Amino acid sequence: MRFFQGNISARFKVIYGVFFLIIISSTVWLSYLSSKGGMEDQLRRTNTALLHLSQQKIEMMLHEIDTSTINFIQEPDVEFFLNGRYANDELRLNYFRILNTRFKTLMFANSNISSFYLYSLANKSLLTDATFSDESSFYDMAWHDAYVNMKGYQEWLDTRKVTEVSSGLEIEKNMITLVRTYPLISLPQFRKGAIIVNVAESTLSNLIQDVDQQRAGQTLVINDQGTVISSQNKDHLFHTIGTIPGAPKLSELKDNGYITKHTKSGSYTTFYLTSNYNGWKYISIVPDPEMNRPLEIVRNLLLTVTAGMFLLAIVIVFAVSNYTFRPLELFFRSVAGKKSVRSGDLSYMEQFFKQMISDNESLQKQMNDSLPALKWRLIMSLLMGDKTNYERMKPYFQTLGMDLYHKQFIVLVIELDRVQDNHTPRDVYLFTYALSNVADELVAGVCKGTSVELTDGRVTVIMSFETEDSQGNQIQALQVADLVKNYVAIHFKQTVTIGVGSPNPHLEGIQISYEEALNALKYKLIMGDNTVVSIDDIAGSNYNEKFYRITTLIDSVVNLIRETDKVKLRPHLDKIFGEVVASNVPPELIKQMCIQIIMKSIKVISDKGLEIKEFLDPKENIYNRIEYCVKVAELKSYMSDFLHQLIVRTEEKRLSKGHHDTIQQVLEYVEQHYMDSELSLNLLAAQFELSVPYLSKLFKETTETNFMDCLIQIRMEKSKELLLGSKHKINTIAESVGYNNVQSFIRIFKKYTGQTPGEFRENLKKGEEDKNGEYETG
């Protein structure tokens, strides 16, 4: 009671002191709570981004090694070893010296490769940069089972211990191994060998360490069985993830995300990513206290700010009360009959309230200006799968003017066609903005939804439905897509391609439907502009069997390049691309097929002695040129022009060659001594006093083939004459054409003619008998 009987100034100080304490404390605490979730999400995104960076670094290195391996295995000398085509030991040693140089070049070019071997299935032998060995006596054959059972064309094996011999010492190393088959694209029964590349596990862990220096915790790489492949702590290698403190179970690590686990030793958050390249999982285990340290810093900082603001408020309260309530005190004293000391006024309060109103209006304007950016960020979080709780997100939807149902969602991705070719960047921006507005209006007529501009020329639309009728909702989405396409064609005079995802329940389904819409949009390459592509149109395509049949057509195109047949080239390309489109082959595989055709064609032309650098533009990147094609017609046109140019330059090269006397003499010598089993390029070089490399190059430039193929052709033609004109045994004929081993003769004869010598002779006899029978009947 004595408090309420005090003067006004004292009561003001107490009441407003408590009031400011409550307001400041509540404001700071609510600010902390409201920002805590966002900061926790930011910390998780940061840790996920760092883990993704580790994954990118490692897979970039693995892709680089794989690419180097593909280029290396297509070298003629490497193919010669893998096919086991050495006629004698001298030729073998000569090629081994060449391969040794190739080995060193590859090792020098890619320092991440620790060692690698060539495995010839025909000879059951292996070749490294230091040794040649039979399969039975080679020191490392642990990869062989994986090679035999491998269904694809390449596979990265888990970390294994490899004992290498260096300078007489046995050194045990942890290796991650790439096994790639030869030929590059072949069924298991047609394989002829493989290249095995070993990468030190420490190379991966060093890449991880470079990223882990930026945050706490430890990063691991595991396989699909949960075994640790790479870690900075080598004690973890070859153990399952369940043995690591704080790690979750393997069954909990599905796709990408994070898991928080509470143990007796503390709380841990595990971030994980699954690689689409080799199936490995990249895992980062972070103690929660270390991860949440920034939150503690912010909390302590806010407490300090709270204390400072409260002290400031108390000072202001005392100052204001002394200035403001002095006139009131005099007034009340005057009313109570007490003598006034001095007068005062409250004019400053009028200015204070005016300033508050002005600040409120300014804050409201800033809020309205930032609504589009906040809406864009929220929708992107939904598309990326960061926001999945509808009830928690509903207040944010209402604040940003987004009214959505929560039963089922379908995502559309709309892309303007050829915008970069016909419009300025400003025009593209305006078209994209208008397209987003059109999509909002058309969706509103069917269901509830919203749209956002992803990039210039691309808009994403989220449609939400009140019921879980998947079929009916999908039909409505396709109808909206057709309406958007027709509206743009009529009013904008433009065309769009629209990818439509499948219906998915709850907010987490938005990310799935969005990824499906993007995948559907890629089929613009096949279906062309101004189309609506649903995920149902492309799902479940089984193209493997058809693709293997198309590889035969690829080889036929390469044969046309070899034969420089310009007339048949374009029809063959039309046939290949026709079957590709009819088979609904994915766009990525179509582009890979084109690259394979170009690589094989370039190799064929190189074998003819044509230097590709003579006509290829060094500034043009063939891979990028193919990647930038957005239509099958563009791909086919580029391939047709490129291959046609190859044939034209080959013909020009052939016409520019003159008759070479030295090669003519060499050919005559081969014609006279083909029956000599010791005949080789080395012998010819010594006979004509030329170096082996120069004679090989001269031979290829003049005859458009290599010496060994020419010698085999002469021997096979002579053997066909002997089979036709004599009754000698097969082994006698083999010796007379230069083969001491009759099995080698039979194998080469069958590869050259498609028949064994016995079958060839028997078919000739039947042909003669049938011809004689026709003469007698006539």
TrEMBL record:
Q: Where is the HTH araC/xylS-type domain?
A: 664-763
Swiss-Prot/TrEMBL keywords? DNA-binding, Membrane, Transcription, Transcription regulation, Transmembrane, Transmembrane helix
- A matching Pfam family: GGDEF_2
Entry protein name: AraC-like DNA-binding protein
Spell out the SMART domains in the cross-references.
HTH_ARAC
Query: In the record, which residues are listed under signal peptide?
Result: none
**Where are the membrane-spanning stretches?**
14-35, 301-325
Tell me the PROSITE patterns matching this sequence: HTH_ARAC_FAMILY_1, HTH_ARAC_FAMILY_2
Highest taxon of source:
Bacteria
Q: Does the keyword Transmembrane apply?
A: yes
